Amino acid sequence: MKCTVTELEIETIYRRIIEKDLNLSPEFQRGEVWTVNKKKKLIDSILRGWRIPPIHLIENIDFIDEVLDGQQRLVAIRDFIENQFSIDGTLKPVDKNICDLDRLYYKDLDLNIQRKFKKYSLTIIRLTEYLPEEPAELFYRLNQPATLTSAEQRNSYIGNTRNQIKELVNLFEELGANRETIGFSNSRMAYDDIISKFCYTLEEGNLKKKITSNNISEKYRNNEPFAEEIIDEVQKTLIFFIESSKLGQDKFIFNKLNINKATLYSWLIFTYRNKENINKDLMAELIYTFEFSREYVKGKVSGIVLGFEKIIPLFRDNNYLNQMFLIFNQRASMGSTDALSIIYRDIILEIYLLVYSSNENFNPTLSKYLSNNIDSMSRTLEIITSNLNWGGTIKK
């Protein structure tokens, strides 16, 4: 990899951003995450004439520079010039000259101050003649102190594996996945993390192996794409799940799902297994009534609201449901990524399908373990896991 160091004035850099010769948001970047206060501190540093860390750019095949490291700094500079925030003259150590500029936007500054700002030069390190893994490794090393999420680190690995996941995430969001429809957004690449793990799970074919971030990172690093049949199955699963979720929004008053990454992962496994066996209307009911029941046993929902009347007889006729949902909630915490927690959540979703649909044919083998004589749901899950070798295969 060849690294060329140069100095460019802000005026030149901003013009190149506007003319799209410098791309602030390449696929491997993590989005704009700096707060306004952090942006103001950067502008304050520039106004003081302090040096800021160099910007690392990758020259692509079209000779467009893509930001590898320094995206947030360049975004802050662009936003300041475009008057999206003002100067904070109270930042310590207080500088009298900057204090006089407090609350002024770029457009309000004296022309001489604007000129001085635009003449500030940044150190630019342009990367050329690189192997695919070299920019990713540099990005990781540069950002180690920034506590990047595993998905953010993986996203810097240029190659087919990353592109596959990015396309799936884009599809997921285009279908309507967002905080309103599933309970959380793609902040810090949360969707990338779940979908890549889901792909890896289908590749493994079972739930018994604990999948670590290192397992998935190795596929990115070695540029080992997932098989097309796996990508196709994941696409079908995402479509079925989101379309069902959106149906549930229209059907139920309780239309705010509060699932997390662990729960979504389990729902995707369940959807993959059952998308050919159930229709989207039933799937919508399962998602919303199940998530409502989880909140109900937590005591976060007072009373049964319109659309969820079926929940009362379900709990009355199946005395183990309360225990079951409590276990699911416990096993769905953010830290519950161990294989046993994943297997227990998977069994519980299948049990709920049997109970809610009143159709033992969905899984007659599993239905034999269910009765009102269950004293310990934990023990029942343990027995099911052992006797049925649950998780040994994802498909029924």
Automatic annotation (TrEMBL):
Database matches in InterPro entries: GmrSD_N (IPR004919)
Record domain GmrSD restriction endonucleases N-terminal: where: 16-158
Pfam families per record: GmrSD_N
PANTHER family, per the entry: CHROMOSOME 16, WHOLE GENOME SHOTGUN SEQUENCE, DUF262 DOMAIN-CONTAINING PROTEIN
UniProt protein name: DUF262 domain-containing protein
Organism: Fodinisporobacter ferrooxydans
